[in-house]
Design brief:
The protein is of the alpha+beta class and 200 residues long. The protein has three helices and eight strands; from the N terminus they run H-E-E-E-E-E-E-E-E-H-H. It has three domains: 6-65, no CATH class; 98-153, no CATH class; 155-200. 28% of the residues lie in helices and 20% in strands. It is rod-shaped and about 160 Å long. Residues 1-6 and 8-15 have low confidence and may be disordered.
Length: 200
Protein backbone atom coordinates (compact mmCIF):
# COMPACT_ATOMS: atom_id res chain seq x y z
CA UNK A 1 0.00 0.00 0.00
CA UNK A 2 1.35 3.44 -1.02
CA UNK A 3 1.56 5.94 1.86
CA UNK A 4 1.21 9.65 1.11
CA UNK A 5 3.85 11.39 3.14
CA UNK A 6 4.23 14.99 4.33
CA UNK A 7 6.49 15.84 1.39
CA UNK A 8 3.58 14.78 -0.86
CA UNK A 9 1.30 17.25 0.90
CA UNK A 10 3.74 20.14 0.51
CA UNK A 11 4.38 19.21 -3.09
CA UNK A 12 0.65 19.29 -3.79
CA UNK A 13 0.38 22.68 -2.09
CA UNK A 14 3.33 24.02 -4.11
CA UNK A 15 1.75 22.76 -7.30
CA UNK A 16 -1.55 24.46 -6.54
CA UNK A 17 0.29 27.69 -5.67
CA UNK A 18 2.15 27.57 -8.94
CA UNK A 19 -1.11 27.12 -10.83
CA UNK A 20 -2.69 30.09 -9.09
CA UNK A 21 0.39 32.26 -9.68
CA UNK A 22 0.31 31.43 -13.38
CA UNK A 23 -3.42 32.17 -13.48
CA UNK A 24 -2.95 35.59 -11.84
CA UNK A 25 0.07 36.61 -13.92
CA UNK A 26 -1.23 39.18 -16.45
CA UNK A 27 2.04 39.14 -18.42
CA UNK A 28 1.57 35.53 -19.61
CA UNK A 29 -1.79 34.05 -20.41
CA UNK A 30 -1.97 30.53 -18.89
CA UNK A 31 -2.67 27.53 -21.11
CA UNK A 32 -6.04 25.82 -21.03
CA UNK A 33 -4.48 22.51 -19.77
CA UNK A 34 -1.79 21.52 -17.28
CA UNK A 35 0.34 18.34 -17.03
CA UNK A 36 0.62 16.80 -13.56
CA UNK A 37 3.55 14.43 -12.92
CA UNK A 38 3.26 11.70 -10.29
CA UNK A 39 6.74 10.90 -9.05
CA UNK A 40 7.61 7.82 -6.97
CA UNK A 41 11.17 7.69 -5.67
CA UNK A 42 13.17 4.67 -4.51
CA UNK A 43 11.58 4.84 -1.05
CA UNK A 44 8.07 4.84 -2.50
CA UNK A 45 7.57 8.52 -1.60
CA UNK A 46 4.97 10.01 -3.92
CA UNK A 47 5.04 13.63 -5.05
CA UNK A 48 2.88 15.52 -7.48
CA UNK A 49 4.33 18.36 -9.53
CA UNK A 50 3.91 20.18 -12.82
CA UNK A 51 7.48 19.46 -13.92
CA UNK A 52 9.14 16.23 -14.99
CA UNK A 53 10.18 13.90 -12.17
CA UNK A 54 13.85 13.83 -11.15
CA UNK A 55 16.10 11.10 -12.46
CA UNK A 56 15.64 7.78 -10.68
CA UNK A 57 11.95 8.37 -9.97
CA UNK A 58 9.02 6.66 -11.56
CA UNK A 59 7.12 9.31 -13.60
CA UNK A 60 3.51 9.02 -14.61
CA UNK A 61 1.81 12.12 -16.00
CA UNK A 62 -1.73 13.16 -16.73
CA UNK A 63 -3.04 16.15 -18.70
CA UNK A 64 -5.78 17.93 -16.83
CA UNK A 65 -7.99 20.91 -17.49
CA UNK A 66 -6.49 23.95 -15.81
CA UNK A 67 -8.75 25.01 -12.93
CA UNK A 68 -10.38 28.41 -13.24
CA UNK A 69 -11.69 30.75 -10.64
CA UNK A 70 -15.43 30.88 -10.35
CA UNK A 71 -16.86 33.97 -12.06
CA UNK A 72 -17.63 36.80 -9.76
CA UNK A 73 -21.32 37.17 -9.01
CA UNK A 74 -22.61 40.41 -10.44
CA UNK A 75 -23.66 42.97 -7.92
CA UNK A 76 -27.38 43.45 -7.70
CA UNK A 77 -28.49 46.61 -9.47
CA UNK A 78 -28.99 49.62 -7.26
CA UNK A 79 -32.63 50.34 -6.60
CA UNK A 80 -33.97 53.07 -8.83
CA UNK A 81 -34.54 56.32 -7.02
CA UNK A 82 -38.02 57.75 -7.29
CA UNK A 83 -38.16 60.76 -9.62
CA UNK A 84 -38.00 64.08 -7.90
CA UNK A 85 -41.25 65.96 -8.06
CA UNK A 86 -41.16 68.90 -10.39
CA UNK A 87 -41.25 72.23 -8.60
CA UNK A 88 -44.59 73.92 -8.71
CA UNK A 89 -44.42 77.59 -9.49
CA UNK A 90 -47.55 79.37 -8.50
CA UNK A 91 -48.03 82.67 -10.27
CA UNK A 92 -48.23 85.68 -8.06
CA UNK A 93 -51.77 86.91 -7.59
CA UNK A 94 -52.61 89.82 -9.85
CA UNK A 95 -52.24 93.23 -8.30
CA UNK A 96 -55.42 95.18 -7.76
CA UNK A 97 -55.66 98.18 -10.06
CA UNK A 98 -54.95 101.54 -8.44
CA UNK A 99 -57.88 103.85 -7.76
CA UNK A 100 -59.00 106.10 -10.60
CA UNK A 101 -56.99 109.18 -11.37
CA UNK A 102 -58.03 112.06 -13.63
CA UNK A 103 -56.02 114.79 -15.24
CA UNK A 104 -57.99 118.01 -15.64
CA UNK A 105 -56.83 120.83 -17.90
CA UNK A 106 -58.03 124.39 -17.64
CA UNK A 107 -58.70 126.69 -20.61
CA UNK A 108 -55.20 128.17 -20.33
CA UNK A 109 -53.43 124.77 -20.25
CA UNK A 110 -52.86 124.29 -16.50
CA UNK A 111 -53.11 120.64 -15.41
CA UNK A 112 -54.16 119.22 -12.06
CA UNK A 113 -54.86 115.69 -10.86
CA UNK A 114 -57.99 114.51 -9.11
CA UNK A 115 -59.08 111.15 -7.69
CA UNK A 116 -62.62 111.77 -9.00
CA UNK A 117 -64.13 113.37 -12.06
CA UNK A 118 -64.10 117.04 -11.07
CA UNK A 119 -64.27 119.58 -13.90
CA UNK A 120 -64.49 122.32 -11.26
CA UNK A 121 -67.31 124.40 -12.79
CA UNK A 122 -66.83 128.08 -11.94
CA UNK A 123 -67.76 131.56 -13.06
CA UNK A 124 -64.68 133.45 -14.16
CA UNK A 125 -64.60 137.19 -14.90
CA UNK A 126 -65.18 138.12 -18.50
CA UNK A 127 -62.02 140.17 -18.48
CA UNK A 128 -60.07 136.94 -18.71
CA UNK A 129 -61.63 136.28 -22.10
CA UNK A 130 -62.68 139.76 -23.35
CA UNK A 131 -60.21 142.47 -22.33
CA UNK A 132 -62.42 145.22 -23.75
CA UNK A 133 -65.45 145.01 -21.48
CA UNK A 134 -67.10 148.06 -23.09
CA UNK A 135 -67.65 146.01 -26.20
CA UNK A 136 -69.88 143.53 -24.34
CA UNK A 137 -73.49 143.84 -23.31
CA UNK A 138 -74.01 145.07 -19.71
CA UNK A 139 -75.77 141.84 -18.62
CA UNK A 140 -72.74 139.77 -19.61
CA UNK A 141 -70.10 141.83 -17.82
CA UNK A 142 -70.22 139.80 -14.60
CA UNK A 143 -68.59 136.38 -15.28
CA UNK A 144 -68.54 133.41 -17.56
CA UNK A 145 -69.18 129.79 -16.51
CA UNK A 146 -66.32 127.47 -17.47
CA UNK A 147 -65.25 123.89 -16.74
CA UNK A 148 -61.94 122.07 -16.95
CA UNK A 149 -61.49 119.19 -19.36
CA UNK A 150 -60.97 115.98 -17.30
CA UNK A 151 -59.67 112.69 -18.72
CA UNK A 152 -59.21 109.46 -16.78
CA UNK A 153 -55.65 108.13 -16.81
CA UNK A 154 -54.86 104.50 -17.66
CA UNK A 155 -51.93 102.11 -17.62
CA UNK A 156 -48.60 102.98 -16.05
CA UNK A 157 -49.28 106.69 -16.04
CA UNK A 158 -51.81 106.21 -13.23
CA UNK A 159 -49.09 104.70 -11.01
CA UNK A 160 -46.67 107.48 -11.96
CA UNK A 161 -49.14 110.06 -10.68
CA UNK A 162 -49.85 108.08 -7.48
CA UNK A 163 -46.12 107.81 -6.80
CA UNK A 164 -45.75 111.57 -7.21
CA UNK A 165 -48.70 112.12 -4.86
CA UNK A 166 -46.96 109.90 -2.30
CA UNK A 167 -43.81 112.03 -2.49
CA UNK A 168 -45.85 115.20 -2.14
CA UNK A 169 -47.75 113.76 0.85
CA UNK A 170 -44.47 112.74 2.48
CA UNK A 171 -43.12 116.28 2.09
CA UNK A 172 -46.33 117.82 3.46
CA UNK A 173 -46.30 115.45 6.46
CA UNK A 174 -42.80 116.58 7.38
CA UNK A 175 -43.74 120.25 7.17
CA UNK A 176 -47.20 119.98 8.77
CA UNK A 177 -48.16 122.08 11.78
CA UNK A 178 -49.47 120.45 14.92
CA UNK A 179 -53.12 121.04 13.99
CA UNK A 180 -52.75 119.26 10.60
CA UNK A 181 -50.02 116.70 11.44
CA UNK A 182 -52.46 113.86 12.16
CA UNK A 183 -54.31 114.37 8.87
CA UNK A 184 -51.09 114.62 6.85
CA UNK A 185 -49.76 111.39 8.37
CA UNK A 186 -53.00 109.50 7.70
CA UNK A 187 -53.05 110.79 4.12
CA UNK A 188 -49.45 109.68 3.62
CA UNK A 189 -50.29 106.21 4.99
CA UNK A 190 -53.29 105.89 2.66
CA UNK A 191 -51.38 106.87 -0.48
CA UNK A 192 -48.40 104.70 0.48
CA UNK A 193 -50.70 101.68 0.85
CA UNK A 194 -52.16 102.30 -2.60
CA UNK A 195 -48.70 102.53 -4.18
CA UNK A 196 -47.43 99.37 -2.44
CA UNK A 197 -50.48 97.25 -3.29
CA UNK A 198 -51.09 98.37 -6.87
CA UNK A 199 -47.93 99.90 -8.30
CA UNK A 200 -44.99 97.84 -6.96
Amino acid sequence: MTRITRPFFFATLACASALLAAENNPAKKPEATVTIHRCVDSKNHVTLQDEACPAGSQDSSRVMQRPKDAPESPLPPAPALPPEPEPIFEPAPPRPPPPDMYVCTSYDGNERYSESYDPNPRCEPYVLYYPYLTEQAPQRLACRWVEDSCVQLSGDRTCVVWEQKRKDAESEARRAFSDTAAYRKSELARITRIVNESCR
